[in-house]
Design goal:
The structure is a single chain. It contains 2 helices and 4 strands. It has 73 residues and is α+β, with helices and mostly antiparallel strands. The protein has one domain: Alpha-Beta Plaits, CATH 3.30.70.100. The mean pLDDT is 97.
């Protein structure tokens, strides 16, 4: 299981958290998603044979959020 962490521009409302969590959770290969409102971070655990960190970043950006940095391990 791989892990990814994305630093976003500051989130403005709890609805943003739910929107990101729902979109990523529906994606094949993602096991867990945690969006931290106060720090504007997204943490995921995923099967890297089914989805990449880059694909997750695109999903977040397609929702209208800016990813400032990301790391995958």
């Amino acid at each position: 299981m791989a892990k990814a962490e994305f630093q976003l521009e500051p989130l403005t409302c709890p609805t943003c958290v739910k929107k990101i969590e729902t979109a990523l959770a529906k994606s094949k290969g993602i096991d867990t998603v945690k969006v931290l409102f106060n720090s504007s971070k997204v943490k995921t655990e995923f099967d890297d044979t089914q989805i990449s960190g880059e694909k997750q970043k695109l999903i977040i950006e397609n929702l209208g959020y800016t990813v400032l940095s990301s790391k995958t391990s």
